[in-house]
Amino acid sequence: MSSDLHTEAYLANQILWDRRTAVHLESDFYDVQSFLVTRDSLKIYERQALGDLRGKRVLHLQCHFGQDTISLSTLGADATGIDFSKAAIKAAQDLALKCESSAQFYESNVYDIDKLDLGKFDIVFTSYGTICWLPDLSTWADIIHRHLRKGGRFVMVDFHPVLQMYDWESGEMSFPYFPHGEAMVEENEQNYVDDMQRINLPAYFWQHSLSETLQSLIDSGLSVERFVEYDRSPYDCFPHMESLDDGNYRYSKSKVNLPHLFEIQCITR
């Protein structure tokens, strides 16, 4: 994909996420009013992966409007969130004030965060629907490495690429597993927090195999310490998800048990 098309996709996605932010702030899915009480939006998968955050300096990539970043701060972290959506960062800063949180937020594309001169972190964290918006994982991994101190950790929990191969309505595999460099486009992007409301803007996204993700991190100089896959998701954010007894969800149209999430932890040497 040419740099011009990358720019076109980036700008379109930026408009999309600016529009999404307004919808998400009012949604039951994000439930801002309850969050103002609990100041905790983290799920068990990332909470266990992150461990004790007291006194840790944490960089949260693609933080949206900041609920998880503020949650990191609630757990004792010196937390910084970045996102490329101006609307999301403004909402995150407002939410932090309401929560009396010390979390800091900056508007930036992931690929441009070197310009912020944020220094080194104990942990770089990203979760749920992140790298599908990024065309180049090699550069992404190098940036993560540069922002970790020696002995620092990268923690990632995200939706599994196999799950994202499915057409949600038909249950058929409709998207490739292996990356091919080209963006896929959803022309009439459905708002995942409300099946009845559509944003009516195009969404550009990229599929990344697990091998591409892991090898990009390894090539950057990070050591993979933990990799695990999960057969369920904490989010009911896709069509045809069935509720499980443990409070998680599973895609109901598949005849076999699919991987829904993966977790990666890396360390710098």
Quick synopsis:
This protein has 269 residues and is an alpha/beta fold. The protein has helices spanning 3-25, 32-38, 44-50, 67-74, 86-98, 137-146, 210-219, and strands at residues 57-61, 78-83, 104-107, 121-127, 148-159, 184-186, 203-205, 223-230, 241-243, 249-251, 261-267.
Protein model, in words:
The protein has helices at residues 3-25, 32-38, 44-50, 67-74, 86-98, 137-146, 210-219; strands at 57-61, 78-83, 104-107, 121-127, 148-159, 184-186, 203-205, 223-230, 241-243, 249-251, 261-267. With 269 residues, it is an alpha/beta fold. It has one domain (3-267): Rossmann fold (3-Layer(aba) Sandwich), CATH 3.40.50.150. The strands form three sheets. It has a seven-stranded mixed beta sheet, sandwiched between helices. A two-stranded antiparallel ribbon has the order 6-7. α1 (3-25) packs parallel to α5 (86-98) and α6 packs across α7 (210-219). The longest helix is centred in the first third of the chain and has 23 residues, at 3-25.
List the domain count as a whole number: 1
Average pLDDT works out at: 92
Strand content: 15-25%
Structural class computed from helices and strand pairing: alpha/beta
Strand order of the largest sheet: 3-2-1-4-5-11-8
Please report the total strand number as a whole number: 11
Number of helices: 7
CATH class division: Alpha Beta
What's the CATH H-level homologous superfamily? Answer: Vaccinia Virus protein VP39
Global shape? globular
The CATH topology name reads: Rossmann fold
In whole angstroms, the N-to-C terminal distance is 34 Å
Cα Rg:
18 Å
Helix content: 25-40%
Query: What would CATH call the architecture?
Result: 3-Layer(aba) Sandwich
Largest sheet: 7 strands, mixed
Assembly classification: single chain
